[in-house]
């Protein structure tokens, strides 16, 4: 069973940077997508970025394009994959709880990102607060 462990997050000033990590293990196939999603207080959950583990294809919504970068790193010996979300030029509106989620791929990365956004039962996530 695929397992994810999130790390990173914290408090940062506007214009600052943070990096989130999502470590994945327990997968039987690498044909899956990992995404980062966030939810601010009183708002709906939204996708931040998604990446295909197989070919590295990515998707960014306009709200983070040019500021956030998602990447992956494989450890074949341990059969693990870590997905990083490098966030730069952070804005107040980037504040929220960030979650990573995975799903075996059956559509484009962009569509998988949209599909995963609508899923139920999310983990604890990690808090990102942008404040001066």
Describe this structure as you would to a colleague.
- This protein has 132 residues and is mainly β.
- The protein has one helix and ten strands; from the N terminus they run E-E-E-E-E-E-E-E-E-H-E.
- The chain has one helix spanning 109-117; strands at 3-7, 10-12, 18-25, 32-39, 46-52, 58-59, 68-75, 80-87, 96-104, 126-130.
- The strands form two sheets. Strands 2-10-9-4-5-6 form a six-stranded mixed β-sheet, covered by helices on one side. The protein has a four-stranded antiparallel β-sheet with strand order 1-3-8-7, with no helix packed on it.
- Strand 7 and strand 8 (80-87) form a beta hairpin.
- The longest helix has 9 residues, at 109-117.
- The chain is globular and about 45 Å long.
- The model has no long low-confidence stretch (mean pLDDT 95).
Helix content: under 10%
Order of helices and strands: EEEEEEEEEHE
Report the radius of gyration as a whole number of Å. 14 Å
Which structural class do the helices and strands define?
mainly beta
Largest sheet: 6 strands, mixed
Question: Which descriptor suits the 3D outline?
Answer: globular
- Round the mean pLDDT to the nearest integer and report it: 95
Poorly predicted segments:
none
Spatial order of the strands in the main sheet?
Answer: 2-10-9-4-5-6
Cα end-to-end separation: 41 Å
Please tally the β strands and state the result. 10
Strand content: over 45%
């Amino acid at each position: 069973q695929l397992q994810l462990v999130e790390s990173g997050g914290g408090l940062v000033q506007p214009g600052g940077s943070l990096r989130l990590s999502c470590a994945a293990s327990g997968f039987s196939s690498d044909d899956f997508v990992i995404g980062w999603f966030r939810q601010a207080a009183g708002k709906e959950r939204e996708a931040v970025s998604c990446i295909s583990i197989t070919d590295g294809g990515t998707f960014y919504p306009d709200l983070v394009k040019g500021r956030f970068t998602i990447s992956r790193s494989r450890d074949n010996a341990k059969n693990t994959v870590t997905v990083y979300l490098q966030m730069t030029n952070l804005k107040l509106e980037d504040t929220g709880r960030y979650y990573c989620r995975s799903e075996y791929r059956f559509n484009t990365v962009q569509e998988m990102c949209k599909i995963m956004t609508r899923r139920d039962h999310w983990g604890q996530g990690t808090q990102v607060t942008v404040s001066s």
